[in-house]
Amino acid sequence: METHRKDEFVIRELTPEILSDFLSFFDHDAFADNPAWFGCYCMFDHFMGTSEEFEKRSATENREAISTLIKRGEAHGLLAYLGGRPVGWCHAAPRTALPCLKLFRGEVEDPERVGSIACFVIAKPYRGRGIGRLLLKAACEMFTRQGLAFAEAYPSKQAQTDADNFRGALKMYLDAGFSVFRELERRVIVRKPL
Question: Which helix (H) or strand (E) holds 189?
């Protein structure tokens, strides 16, 4: 489903019908300038093991696992397109659908009321063009349609690189009306009522 247009950018919710677009983005463009993260396929927040165990997984394992989740309708997020080609991704899902958040971001009192914005990946040639902000707006609107009460995210306190901001830049969230909900050691949890 298309949710926004800005110039030529189109945002679509992840469905089994666009699985091939998702895989193509992660196979070729997502981490072209950050090869250390190639193979994640946005599986980290679905994984129930430790960070060390996740790092031992192969790209093929993650690709197959996320494909299965997408086909079942159990993986959620938004793809940004330019000229029919995916150029950006936002992993946005009900908090209860991302078991890793409970392990690494701590418990919250109301997980069933929360939509989590877990990460952003924008292909390098398209950064700085407002795609992240479009994806964030679309994620909040998706959560509202799903009947969730809050959008929640986990930005770094002191990101130094684009890669450090994979959970989204704190300034982007604050500019979009989020406020600090809880302080963690290296991150903050920010929330916005929907």
Answer: strand 188-193
Q: Tell me: the pLDDT tens digits for 124-151?
A: 999 989 999 999 999 999 999 999 999 9
What pLDDT is stored for residue 4 in this prediction? 47
**What Å distances lie between residue 141 and 1, 80, 118, 121, 155, CA to CA?**
12, 15, 16, 19, 20
3-state secondary structure of 137: helix
Range of the domain at 66: 2-193
Total domain count, the chain? 1
Q: What is the pTM of this model?
A: 0.90
The Cα 122–Cα 117 span in angstroms is: 14
- pLDDT tens digits for 89-124? 999 999 989 877 765 555 667 888 999 999 999 999
How far is the C-alpha of 45 from the C-alpha of 95, rounded, in Å?
Answer: 10
pLDDT recorded at residue 63: 96
Q: Which residue has the tokens 């993260």?
A: 37
CATH of the domain at 170: 3.40.630.30
Backbone angles phi, psi at 111, to 5 degrees: -60, -30
CB-based contacts of 87: which residues, under 8 Å, 6+ apart?
9, 25, 29, 80, 81, 122, 123, 125, 126, 131
Q: How many residues does the chain have?
A: 194
Residue with token string 């699985």: 19
